[in-house]
Amino acid sequence: MRNGKEKSSRRAFIKTTSAGVTSVALAATVAASAGPEASAAEPRKARCDGLPLAVTPACSGHETPAAIEGPLFKPDSPERSDLITPGIRGVRLDLGGVVHDTACKPLPGTLIEFWQCDQNGDYDTSGFSLRGHQYTNSRGAFRLRTIIPRDYWGRWGQRAPHIHTQVQSPGGPVLITQLYFPDDTEAYGRDFAALNAADRLLNRACTIRLTATPENTRYTGTFDFVLKTTA
Ligand code: FE
């Protein structure tokens, strides 16, 4: 359970990081859509069949690189780690990881906000579909049940599939970044290698380690954050 202090610090966090979001900006970019070529989200057979599972690397101590927030963050998302709600039919992704400080110490109680577009490349700007926040557990770990988002055209041109996130340890500065997918990811019939190469905001250091489950119908991903805990 969260106490009032944490809630109030969360509000301060949101206030800090949502500055600059205006209704005009929202209106200009709400139409981020995959276009008529968008097809039904059917999981495809993963290409990594037979390859060894990726191993989560030990914490490097290198701070996770920041990225722009983008205009579609919404404050006051529900506290939840499961973003699969009715109507969400994309390629399933179970994402997990640990948040560390730069000395590689796990950070319990760290606030993580996730927001992303759906299987058609659309963000929910009227509700909270595919949006949520959670806190890391006593070992600094988090889990997110979601889908692989689709690519879309937006303010910055062609965007490769990505998950937006904000991470803040108790009392620490906010890290705003975006997580990406490996070139050999298979979802929605899209060429992730080409999409990644064309995305001028993409940072390969923020690529999720992805493995297909044995039945090749969903993915499991790992991403560990490394944060500064003082400004
Ligand atoms: Fe985005």
Please explain how this structure is put together.
Helix content is 12%, strand content 25%. It is an alpha+beta fold. It has one domain: Aromatic compound dioxygenase (Protocatechuate 3,4-Dioxygenase, subunit A), CATH 2.60.130.10. Strands 1, 4, 9, 10 and 11 form a five-stranded mixed β-sheet that branches. Strand 9 and strand 10 form a beta hairpin. The protein is globular and about 40 Å long. The relative contact order is 0.23. The N terminus is likely disordered. The structure holds fe (iii) ion. The site of fe (iii) ion has 4 residues, from strand 7.
Low-confidence sequence ranges: 1-56
Query: Count of helical segments?
Result: 3
Separation of the first and last Cα atoms:
27 Å
Tell me what portion of residues adopts beta-strand conformation: 25-35%
Regarding CATH, which class? Answer: Mainly Beta
Named at the architecture level, the CATH assignment is: Sandwich
Ions, cofactors and other ligands present here are: fe (iii) ion
Instruction: Provide the gyration radius in Å.
Output: 17 Å
* Sheet/helix structural class: alpha+beta
The rough form would be described as globular
Q: Fill in the CATH topology.
A: Protocatechuate 3,4-Dioxygenase, subunit A
Mean pLDDT score, rounded?
81
Number of E-state strands = 11
Give the count of structural domains.
Answer: 1
* Helix share, percent: 10-25%
Question: CATH superfamily, called what?
Answer: Aromatic compound dioxygenase
SSE ordering: HHEEEEEEEEHEEE
How is the biggest beta sheet arranged? 5 strands, mixed
